[in-house]
Structures are given as C-alpha cells and as structure tokens.
Amino acid sequence: MDAEIIIVGAGPAGSTCARLLAQRRRSVLLLDRARFPRDKPCGGWVNLKVFQDFPELEKLRAANAARRTFVDERFHGIVFHSPDLAREAAFTSRSATGYLVRRKEFDHFLLAQAAAAGARFLPRHDVTALDAGEQEVTLTAHNRRFTCQVVVAADGADSTVARLAGLTRGWPAERRINCAYQEIKLDPRTVTRLYGSQRRLHVSLGYGGLSGYAWAFPKHASVNLGLGCRADRPGDPKTLFAQWAADLERIGLLPAKCRLPAPVLSMVPAGGAIDYEGHVGKRVVLVGDAGGFVSAATGEGIYPAMLSARVAAECIDDALRAPRPQDALTEFKFAWRRRFAAYIQRPDANLAFLVPLIYDNPELCNRFARMYLFGETF
Ligand SMILES: Cc1cc2nc3c(=O)[nH]c(=O)nc-3n(C[C@H](O)[C@H](O)[C@H](O)COP(=O)(O)OP(=O)(O)OC[C@H]3O[C@@H](n4cnc5c(N)ncnc54)[C@H](O)[C@@H]3O)c2cc1C
Q1: What is the CATH code for 5-44+103-171+272-344?
Q2: Averaged over 123-129, what is the pLDDT?
Q3: In terms of pTM, does the model score above 0.90?
Q4: Domain ranges in the chain?
Q5: What is the DSSP letter of 279?
Q6: What does pLDDT average to over the chain?
Q7: CATH: 2.120.10, 1.10.3470, 3.60.15, 3.30.9. Which one for 74-98+173-270+348-374?
Q8: Residues 6+ apart with CB under 8 A from 233
Q9: Which residues line ligand 1 (CB under 6 A)?
C-alpha cells in the first residue's frame, strides 16, 4: 500500500486535508497534475474566518505579512456599485475585514505546510483511472498505480476522481457560475492612488444585467477584475469583460489606457453541495470544489474548501479506526451539513428586493456587507 490516504489535488482543500491527516499521524500521499507553484483562476479574496478558524494559519500569516509570501494584502471593507455604476454604498472598517492573496503563492504555502506535517507530494501526476474495492482503492497516474485505503477527491470543480468513482455527471446549470477574470499588474503606488492605502473590495451587483456580479479586488501590486454569472441565466461574462474594464477606467479604478490581456474563463459550482448527495462513494470522499463546497451567494470557495477538508479529515481518521470503515466514512455526508451547510446556503431573504435599497440605507448596506464578507444572515 502506498499510503493510508491518497489525496488528489493540492489546492486549499487537498493541502488542508493532507496537513490535518498528517498531523494525526496518518500516512498521506498528495498527487497533483500540476507542477507547483501553479496558478488557479480566482479573485484571491480569502475570508477573515480562515485565520480565525485555523489559528495555526493566523500565526503564519502574521509571521509572513511583511514578505507577502502567504497573504498579499489586507482589506478594510467593501464598496457596492449599482449595475449602472451611478450609485455606491460602502462598508468600511478600521480593522482588517479579510485578505487578498495571489493563488500561486497562497496554495504553494498551504502545500508546504502539508509537506512539513509529513504528507508526501508528487507533482505532475494526473489521475486518470480509479478502481475501488472492498479493502483498498487503486489509482493510476503518470503510468503508475497507487493503492490506499481512502481516496480524497480534491481535484476541483470538474473533478475527474468524482467522475471515475461514478459520483457526478457534472453540476446543473443553475449551480454553475461562469466567470471571466484577469489580474492586472500595477505599480503599488498606482494601486494606492486608485484605491487608497487601506484597500477595499469593489463589487457591482447585477452589473450589465448579469445574474451575478462584477468585481475589482485591489491587491498590493495588482488589481484582480472579473465577472461571474449563472449559466442558466442570460449574460455572458466574456463579452462584458471589456466593458467592465472600460467602466472601471471611467470611474477611476483602473489607470487610463491600461493594457488588458484577454480574460481567463472558468467556472465555479456555487452552492453545488447543497442539493448534492454524492459526497461519499466506495472509499472515496469529495471535498472543496469537487464536492461543490462553494458559497451559493458569493461564489466564495476557499474557506468552504478548507472547512470541508477539516470535516473530511476527522471522518477519515475515525473511519480508519472503525471496524466498518465505509460506514464511518459515510458520516461525512451528515457531518458537513451539521457543521457548515448554513454558511454556503443562499440567505433566506428577498435579495432582489433588498439589494437596491442598500444605496439609501447605511444599516442595510452594513448588513449586506457582513453577509457578503462573513456569511452572516441578512
Ligand atoms: C474566476 C474565479 C474567481 C474566484 N474567486 C474567489 C475568491 O476571490 N475567493 C474565494 O474564496 N473563492 C474564489 N473562487 C473559488 C475558488 O477558486 C475555489 O472554490 C477554490 O480554489 C477551491 O479549492 P479546491 O482545493 O477545491 O480546488 P482547486 O483550487 O481547483 O485545486 C484543485 C487541484 O486539483 C488538481 N487536479 C485537477 N484534476 C486533477 C487530476 N485528474 N489529477 C491530479 N490533480 C488534479 C489541479 O491541478 C489543482 O491543483 C473563484 C473561482 C473562480 C473560477
């Protein structure tokens, strides 16, 4: 047997699961098709709650803050723009309300923590086959076969492992948010001139008639801009991207004549986990985007990925001690719902009615901002 647990995918879900299992003295092998450091389509906003819920990471964040090797920038609130950008409403805080990261560095850092805890990592191992038996699972990657007791699918929104295990046929259109984004490198002084030294997120809800939103996230030396839209509703983020950039330039949030590469297209399974029942297969558990652990309201996936990884690590550790591991593994299906289903569910409020009111009502704006940033009820 190559390891007790093989984790496929070394994003935030996979690396967190690997670290937590290795810290429980489990033998863990982490496989990823990419060479690290690697990039990942993302806005790079990391919820403040990551560092509250994982205090060990808060220590590392503080220790590496000056070098920006883990977290790139902190931010102090959010500015909401109306769909035509004519109106805005701001929520500002003196203390940090969240962080911005460059995924290349952030994911590499989390992976290094997993390796330091004892997980073995093999890059450039694209998993292409899976055979789950009663006692063990065999995976094929890079023309090699690997056996283990449990496989964790942490291989992203279009999970190969979930498909090979017969656990998914793809996310329904109402759960798929199609995104177009790009990150523009700028001089840090330019970012400060445009956004201020205390960065805030900028979001336009329903921009250009989208059933979704457009964003501009100012980091230390770059601005990440993009749009996301439900796949079952009208609106094409790709075609709106140039207009969003031009509008940002017009309202002074991008420098004039900024050179803009074509947007990167990607998809996020927002709220996918909620009406999905296939998180556990025969000795296989799905975490992160692979399991649809993404906020339905915002498309935020890093924090939910890490939460799902922690619950999975606990269930797997218990299962490997249990007389019937498969029964114990199934507990993951219930445990994640008990622990954090409320966080990824759409708020039980009439957002179509309430959102237009935030531009006139500061209290409503604060509540909406706290929902967006921290998942609080609205
Ligand atoms: C445009 C966009 C913007 C976003 N912005 C934000 C944001 O600002 N904040 C936020 O919280 N969330 C954001 N998200 C969501 C967030 O990026 C994801 O939810 C998060 O990355 C999920 O982490 P993960 O570990 O599950 O998967 P991933 O980060 O996707 O990692 C999966 C890993 O699996 C590997 N892999 C895939 N297939 C295989 C295979 N067959 N064999 C081996 N390895 C494989 C990949 O190489 C990759 O390293 C955004 C998403 C998009 C698309």
Answers
A1: 3.50.50.60
A2: 98
A3: yes
A4: 5-44+103-171+272-344, 74-98+173-270+348-374
A5: S
A6: 96
A7: 3.30.9
A8: 210, 211, 212
A9: 8-14, 31-34, 40-45, 125-127, 154-156, 160, 179, 181, 226, 266, 268, 288-290, 294, 299-303, 305
Where does the pLDDT of residue 259 fall: very low under 50, low under 70, confident under 90, or very high at 90 and above?
confident
Is the pLDDT at 377 greater than 90? The verdict is no
294 CA distance to ligand 1 centroid (A)?
A: 10
Q: Which of 15, 33, 73, 111 to mutate to test the pocket of ligand 1 (most atoms within 8 A of CB)?
A: 33
- Closest to 152 measured CA to CA, from 338, 320, 299: 320
pLDDT (average), residues 144-159: 98
The residue whose CA is least distant from atom 3 of ligand 1 is 42
Q: Residue 103 C-alpha to ligand 1 middle, in angstroms?
A: 9
Q: Percent of the chain, pLDDT > 90? A: 92
Cα–Cα distance, 279 to 290 (Å, whole number): 9
pLDDT in tens, 7-53: 999 999 999 999 999 999 999 999 999 999 999 999 999 999 999 99
9 closest CA partner among 327, 264, 366, 285: 285
- Residue 61 CA to residue 190 CA, distance in Å, equals 25
Q: Which of 42, 78, 163 to mutate to test the pocket of ligand 1 (most atoms within 8 A of CB)?
A: 42
What is the average pLDDT across 355-361?
Answer: 95
Whole-number Å distance, alpha carbon 102 to ligand 1 midpoint, is 13
Question: Whose Cα sits closest to atom 1 in ligand 1?
Answer: 42
Q: Measuring CA to CA, which residue among 110, 130, 229 is closest to residue 180?
A: 229
